[in-house]
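Why do we bother with a discrete structure alphabet at all? Because it lets us treat a fold like text: something you can write down, compare, and reason about line by line. To make this less abstract, here is a complete entry for Transmembrane protein 231. Read it the way you would read a sentence in a foreign language you are learning: slowly, and without expecting to understand everything at once.
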Amino acid sequence: MAFYEVYSHPALIRYKTSFCTRATLFVVVVFCLTYISPLLVAYRSQGFWVKRSTYEEQPVVRFQYQMLLVGATGLTGEYVAWSTFPNFNRLLEGNLRIPAVSWRFEAPPENSTPSPRAAHFL
């Protein structure tokens, strides 16, 4: 199969420009903002991966003056008990013993929250 030339026009067009133009400057600035600046930010902020991370938290614990005391008096399941809950005390009936309770609060130097350090039962 042969090709036939229908029309030909010998046009030789050459466009010339210098290397330092506004378009070249724009391409270089966009390249730096897109690729180079994130790499610099990552390098200055200790790298891409977290090398060391800690999180500490101290819970807020408050004593609510509620307790349940059960003491074994024998090997066969005998016990005495007392609590600050009136409904539980009614359930105990003959095993209920009412002690004298005193609390002593201390705030250690490393902790700003006072907590009960000693309880005395009589």
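What the structure line is telling us, in plain words: The chain has a mean pLDDT of 80. Residues 57 and 111 are 12 Å apart (CA to CA).
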